[in-house]
Amino acid sequence: MSSINNALISSLLSDTDSLSALLDELPIGVAIMGSEGKLLMVNKTYETLTGLMRERAEGFKCLHALRCDYCFKGCPVMKGWDNSTCHKSDATIINRSREKVHVRLTVAPLMNGGNGIRGIIETVTPGLGPIADHSTGDVFGFGELVGRSPQVRKLFSMTPAIAQTDSPVLITGETGTGKDMLAEEIHNASDRVDGPFIKINCGALPEKLLESEFFGHAKNALPGSDHAKPGRLRMAHGGTLYITEIGDLPMPIQTKLLAYMDDHMVYPIGSTKGMRTDVRIMAATQHDLERLARRNQFRRDLLYRLNVIRLHLPPLRERGDDISLLQDHFLKTFQMRFNKSLDGFSRNAEKLLESYAYPGNVRELRNLIEYAVSFCDGKVIRMRHLPGYILGGAGLPQPLAVAPQAPPQPDARGNTRSTPPERWEDVQRTMILDALVKAGGKKQEAAKILGWGRSTLWRKMKRFGIE
Hints:
Elements: H1 3-14, H2 16-24, E1 29-33, E2 39-42, H3 44-50, H4 54-57, H5 62-66, H6 76-79, E3 87-94, E4 100-111, E5 117-126, E6 140-142, E7 145-147, H7 150-163, E8 169-172, H8 179-188, E9 197-201, H9 207-215, H10 232-235, E10 240-244, H11 251-263, E11 265-266, E12 275-276, E13 280-285, H12 289-294, H13 300-306, E14 309-312, H14 322-338, E15 344-345, H15 347-355, H16 361-375, E16 380-381, H17 424-438, H18 443-450, H19 454-464
Parallel strand pairs: 8-13, 8-14, 9-10, 10-13, 15-16
Antiparallel strand pairs: 1-2, 1-5, 3-4, 4-5, 6-7, 11-12
Helix pairs in contact: 14-16, 16-17, 17-18, 18-19
C-alpha cells in the first residue's frame, strides 16, 4: 500500500466521527478501551448486546459493561498482559435483557511505537450458542458474588438496575452473607464508580467519635482537635457512603443523619457553616430494624428514609447448591493465591462441608477453604485438612461425627503409647488459623481469642506466611 493511502487511512481513523461510523457498520460488537480497561468508544452492535448506550460508555469499566464470565477466567484486562498477543475465548455475557448468552470474545492490545500498551480493542461476536435456560441452574454472578439459588438469582437480576439509581439502599442479612461486597459491587456498577466508596462501621467506633467521623469537626471544636477534620460524608462527595451495622447508630446521630438525607448539607461539629455534598447512602445491618423501631431504639422516620430499596441476602444454609458452587469458587481462588494445584475434595470432606450449618455464612466457608488449601499436603482436600471444630457441629451425618476418643491403653508391659509430639511451629500455625477462622478473618478478634497482642499475632502470621 502506498504512503499516500496510509496517510489517508490514518487521517480517517484519527477522526472520531469517521471511526465511529466505520465501527457501526461492523456486525460484531466492538469496544475500544484505555490500557486500564475503561471504555473509550463502543459501536452500535455493542450497545445492542449490552444495553450500554455510547453516551454513557466513556469511563465505564469493561467488567461492568459486559458482565462476562471470562473476566474472572484469565482475561488479560483484569490480570495483566503476559505478552502482546490477541486472546480469544468462548464466554457468556449478561445481555440487555439480563439473560445469559454465549459469545465469542477477542481481546487484543493496541501497542505504541515501543513495547508499551496504549489501549485495548475488544470484539464480541454473538449467537455462537444457545441462550442459557435459567431453569437449568446456570451460575449467576454480580462482580465477586456468585450463586444460582432462586433467591440469589432474583437478587442479581435486580442489582444492575438498582446501581443506575441514586436512591438509598438498605441491605439486610446475617453476618458473613456478603453485605459489604454487595454494596461495593453496586457502587462499582453505578455512575459513581469514579467517585470514592467510603465505609463507616457504627459498631466499631465509640459514640463520642462517631459524630466526628460522620460530619467532621472544626479546629479546636473538640478537646485535642488542633486541626479541622472533613468527616466521611464530605470524603464521600461524588461517591457512596456505606454505613455498616446501622442498627448500632446512637439516637442523636440518627437524627443528624436523617437531617443530612433531607438536605444533603454537612455541618461539622463546632461550625455553623454548612457544606452541600452529593453522596449516595447505602446501609447494612444484621438486626431487625422494625423491631428496634418498635422498641424506640431506632428512628422510624430514618428507617423509612433508608428503606427505599431493600435487598436481603439469605443465609448460606438456605442457598442449597450454592454451597458446593462457592466451595469450588473459593478453591480456585486460593489455589491461585497459594500457587497450588488441587483436584478437589474427597467425598467425606464434601459431605461434611455440605452438612455443616455455617453460622458465619459465606465468610466462614471462605475461611474454611482457605484453611484447607493452606494445610492440604496432597492433591485432594480431605477431612483432616479441615478445622476440627466443624466436626462438633450439630446435624452432621452419623458416619462423620467425631466418636469419643478412647483413652490410650497400656500394652502388655504396662506402658502407654502416645502419638509423637508435633513441632511447636506447626501447633502455633494451627492455633492462629483456627483463631482466624473462628474470628471470621478479623485479626483483632483472633488476637483476643489467642490472648496475644495485635503486634504479636501479626509478627507470627508474617513468620508463618499466613495472609
